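User: quick one
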Amino acid sequence: MGFNLGSVLMGLGMTSDSDQYSVDSVTLFVALLCACIVIGHLLEEHRWMNESITALAIGLGTGVVILLRTRGKSSHILVFSEEIFFIYLLPPIIFNAGFQVKKKKFFRNFMTIILFGAFGTLISFGIISLGAVQLFKKLDIGYLEIGDYLAIGAIFSATDSVCTLQVLNQDETPLLYSLVFGEGVVNDATSIVLFNAIQRFDLSHITSSIALRFVGNLLHLFFTSTLLGVLIGLLCAYIIKKLYMGRHSTDREVALMILMAYLSYMMAELFYLSGILTVFFCGIVMSHYTWHNVTENSRVTTKHAFATMSFVAEIFIFLYVGMDALDIEKWRSVSDSPGTSVGVSSILLGLVMVGRAAFVTIWWAGLMRGAVSMALAYNQFTRSGHTQLRGNAIMITSTITVVLFSTVVFGLMTKPLVRFLLPPPKHSNSMMPSEPSSPKSFTVPLLGNGQDPEADMCGNDTFHPTSLRMLLTTPTNTVHHYWRKFDDAFMRPMFGGRGFVQPVPS
Amino acid sequence: MGFNLGSVLMGLGMTSDSDQYSVDSVTLFVALLCACIVIGHLLEEHRWMNESITALAIGLGTGVVILLRTRGKSSHILVFSEEIFFIYLLPPIIFNAGFQVKKKKFFRNFMTIILFGAFGTLISFGIISLGAVQLFKKLDIGYLEIGDYLAIGAIFSATDSVCTLQVLNQDETPLLYSLVFGEGVVNDATSIVLFNAIQRFDLSHITSSIALRFVGNLLHLFFTSTLLGVLIGLLCAYIIKKLYMGRHSTDREVALMILMAYLSYMMAELFYLSGILTVFFCGIVMSHYTWHNVTENSRVTTKHAFATMSFVAEIFIFLYVGMDALDIEKWRSVSDSPGTSVGVSSILLGLVMVGRAAFVTIWWAGLMRGAVSMALAYNQFTRSGHTQLRGNAIMITSTITVVLFSTVVFGLMTKPLVRFLLPPPKHSNSMMPSEPSSPKSFTVPLLGNGQDPEADMCGNDTFHPTSLRMLLTTPTNTVHHYWRKFDDAFMRPMFGGRGFVQPVPS
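Assistant: Done. Structure below.
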């Protein structure tokens, strides 16, 4: 007959056999993401679990199943490229961070955050790099270049404060929350910028004048990246305000905000700037101006849509890291000397803790290492897929070990610890989500004094603020005062913002 | 010095030179999408323009600029693969169609829609295929197989009713709107299913028993695909209702709905079913049950987020088609005989109009050919990027011509035509967006009688419905009545739905 019923039935779908592998894996991956959400929700009751650990665990479990089914050939269903991470997964996470940050708190503590985030990361980077150079000599781990050691410093300086933030309550302990949050973002950005600078830098000739220029360039990069993000955010606010976008369709407003946010990131990449800083400040400007110019429906939509995208991207990363941790190829070249690998991992963990302790009072919040560290490590130590060099393999497996250990162990201990250190407030005023008039964070032992900076200056508190915080708070408040004046007089009339009411589409 | 200031500055960004091309093109493409939205908004005032035509025009303009800058080498910045279309762009468009459709109207007119959509497409397919076989013989267009002719029939049976829907008002002419909309979706689905069947089918031996089995398989495919979509939609509704997802986080609800909708599409592809039908019915079930189970914020978010995704995907497609229309390579092999190409395009346009006229009273709404036709044509006639065969080149250029011509010419004429045929209602009751009690669509000349089917049966109207519509309406109403009973008694208690109030997260 020359005709096969089965093949017709098969043929009615759209996929050819060559696509089948990718359709398989995408389907499985999407199903696992759904499972993570449902299981993460069920485990929410158990206060010591969080989404990241759930996703890691499910990823590990799936990895085991795939390992058994493929008889040890492979443990993952999608091959991770750090391009996916930097082009698709990181922008929504960072943009959402900027969009949801409480700007008043963030800018009032700007100096503290920059001090902790940027300079702290540099200190941590120095300690980890130097420590690795000194301590790795005693272990037999193959040849690593000076650039590799510096990269290790940058990789393990990128903290992951997601676990801590999931436990803290923005309304109960606003100061602590904004410090942990802001420090985390600035820290990530600094690590990535440092890492990229190291990768491109000619490390064979380092003199003090070159080092000085390097720092100058770093500052220039920070400034231009921030400026680009602010400009694109303002442009978006101006367009939406001027054209009354919402008049015809709210979807157009939402689409324009998402596309322009993404555009800011891509433009920064195009001009060799730091996309992460650009998109972060674009998020801040969009939430300060653009968001107030759109219709009520668009406001609700953007707020939740951005949070959802960020949420999915985060689960995606942890799920992948869990699956990839079991990749047999990487462990094979390590397995002949398990002691070395354990040694390297322990040294790195120790250095992480020392480096972190050296500069920051909110020590615990930054002990976890997560997705950014993984992505940077892949970038540095796997050139074309998997590495053959022994030193590189050890670095990858050690990164996985540190990420898994710190996320699971430190992550699981975070909730009990925070509960122990921060007793729940007696009367939480949940009707006023932003800027509660009397924050209940007197008892924040990590920070000395958690009260509102303005209250500090009125002198009506019985606790004496530490001199460091006083020093940092006073100029910031002055700047904030003039900024508010400038904002009201020039910026808001031009770009909208809180109080600007968009007419409802008829 | 061995040190270059410029290279350090350049190196601080994340992109290596090899990525640069893709960062370039993505940035430009995102910028063009933004431009389309802004310009589309500005042109909204001119009632004969619409988003599709704007995107096409901007795409054409960009194509010209790129052509001039590359000196005729290339006209597009991204290479279109129909995989992008079928895996990323089509699912949100079709899901949103199912999600936003007015279910009551859709199911009341279910028989009419199926008759117009599915059987009408088959008639159109037959006419265009046979017509092409007969008429193309006289033109010198190189060798085409019988499968190619059948594919041409399927390609040009996929209508694009976006232009028409942009002009019609769902509240003013609900019946006409739901018919045009439903017919468009079913029509697209039928074309794609037909097309895939043709591509896989051994066309050398066609007997009547094989043809019968083929139809049987087609029906089986329709049924199983629909069932899969319904099941996944119900599962999602059940999970969200049972677990009170919104208690902890609204973002989780939104993420789960998006991921499960996408999962339904990918699972259908995995099982060689029709993803387009699955995701359409998943959208219907989700809007009927799931959507009512989530928190108020999630409702607003999902409604607008889905619409936005669909909107961006549509602009993306038209922008690309505009850019690709100028691709010089395709036109080169055609340019030695421009008469043939014009002849083929004219024949196809004529066949499209005849095929459409043969089965459908809402003739105009389905004359436009759009993105689906383009994607199918690329799939059939370009195997590895660009085609060298003359016949294939002619078919691609003719498809582009037909799509451009029908979208621009018919599209521009739609608004004046609709205005002429459908005078605006005198007192539009805009406070009741869904199911207005007295629709003002008496004057719909295309449909004989535009009144509410229930009003028809009460006999209180002076217009006599056509016998065809009466025949189709009565059994559908009976089915609808029993469905409502079943829904209230069994489905709603299980899966939620309208009236189910999710507790607000504390």
